Structure formats: structure tokens, C-alpha cells
UniProtKB/TrEMBL annotation:
Keywords: Membrane, Transmembrane, Transmembrane helix. The chain crosses the membrane at residues 12-30, 50-68, 89-109, 129-150, 157-178. InterPro entries: SQR/QFR_C/D. This is Uncharacterized protein. The lineage of its organism: Bacteria, Pseudomonadati, Pseudomonadota, Betaproteobacteria, Burkholderiales. It comes from the Bacteria.
Length: 197
């Protein structure tokens, strides 16, 4: 189990760098969708390189698999450990769905899986009922998961800041993608993936 734990912590560095970049990209939408797209085009020069993208996908799979492996067979009685386990399970599920959807969008639907692809489900009724909590909880789970690791070293009170920050960032990202902060409507080609003609 020590090896699995080391693998999980080691993979967290690579995955963490990408996730921070991804969150920064979504927060760029606070300045408008054009700012989001410009930021994405710049960082794609790095993470869309085949070798980097392949390593990133492997790291995500290893992170999810090692986290789920640590979860199995261990009973957690303390609330921090339970929250860390629950947030980790949600993150693994989210990554499975999210990465599969992006790869499907690129390979099968032949779409640029940019912000419009992500935001389409947030702007088409009734899919918002799924996608609003789906994205909100994903960002919140990330902050909770990292906050639990911090709380193990610094005490339970250290969890408050990450949880509050996670709720704020989640709310801002979802509101920006829904077009609630600045006018933004997903182009029809992306909406059509949800709307039956």
C-alpha cells in the first residue's frame, strides 16, 4: 500500500499542474469567453503535444486507479478521511466521464473541445440539471480533497479555507460558462449535440 500511496502522491504533481492550468483557464472566462479561448490556445501549445497529452492521460488514469486502490478495504472512521475518500471517488468518476466526453467530442463528433463544448450542457435545458452540479461538485471536490491532505498536517481548521475557496471558484466557473457574468451564448454547432432537430 505504501507504493500505491507514493504513486498517488507523485502523480498528483503532474495532474495538479494541469488541473491548476485548467482552472486558471476557466477563471479567465471571468474576463469574457474570448479571454478564455486565448488562454486555452496558448496552453494547448504545451498540453496538446502528443507526448505530453499521452503522459497526462496516463497520469490521470494512474491517479484515479491508485486513489481507488487506497480506498478499497480500508474503513475510515474520522470525518476528514471520509471526506477525502468521498471527494476522491467523485473526482475519479468526474475524470472518467469528462475525459471520455472530450475524447469522444474530438474523435467522433469532430468538434474542437474548447469552452463551447464544456459550456453547451450548462446552457441547454434540461441538461443544466445534470451539468451545473456536475461541474460545481468537481471543482469543490478538488479543493476538498486537497484541503483534507492539508488538514491532516495542519489540523481540521485548515480545511475551512479550501472548502470556501472551492465553493467560490466553483460558483464563478459555472456562472461564467452559463453566461451569467458576461453575455455568452454557446454557438449552435455545440448546442446541437444536445438539441434534437
Amino acid at each position: 500500500m505504501k507504493t500505491v500511496r507514493k504513486l498517488h502522491r507523485g502523480g498528483a504533481l503532474l495532474v495538479g499542474i494541469f488541473v491548476l492550468m485548467h482552472l486558471a483557464n476557466h477563471l479567465a472566462a471571468l474576463q469574457g469567453i474570448d479571454a478564455h479561448l486565448r488562454f486555452m490556445e496558448a496552453v494547448r501549445l504545451v498540453y496538446r503535444q502528443p507526448l505530453v497529452e499521452g503522459l497526462l492521460l496516463l497520469a490521470l488514469l494512474a491517479q484515479a486507479a491508485s486513489g481507488l486502490r487506497m480506498l478499497m478495504g480500508k474503513r475510515r472512521s474520522d470525518p476528514i478521511a471520509r471526506l477525502q475518500a468521498a471527494s476522491g471517488v467523485y473526482l475519479a468518476l468526474f475524470l472518467l466521464i469528462h475525459v471520455s466526453a472530450v475524447l469522444f467530442g474530438r474523435a467522433v463528433l469532430d468538434l474542437d473541445t474548447n469552452v463551447h463544448f464544456a459550456a453547451a450542457g450548462l446552457q441547454v435545458w434540461p441538461y443544466q440539471l445534470f451539468f451545473v452540479p456536475y461541474y460545481f461538485l468537481a471543482v469543490l471536490a478538488l479543493f476538498a480533497h486537497l484541503g483534507c491532505a492539508l488538514a491532516r498536517r495542519a489540523g481540521t481548521a485548515a480545511l475551512v479555507v479550501p472548502l470556501c475557496a472551492g465553493a467560490l471558484v466553483s460558483s464563478l466557473v459555472v456562472a461564467a460558462l452559463m453566461g451569467k457574468l458576461q453575455p455568452y451564448e454557446v454557438p449552435p454547432i455545440y448546442r446541437q449535440t444536445y438539441v434534437q432537430s
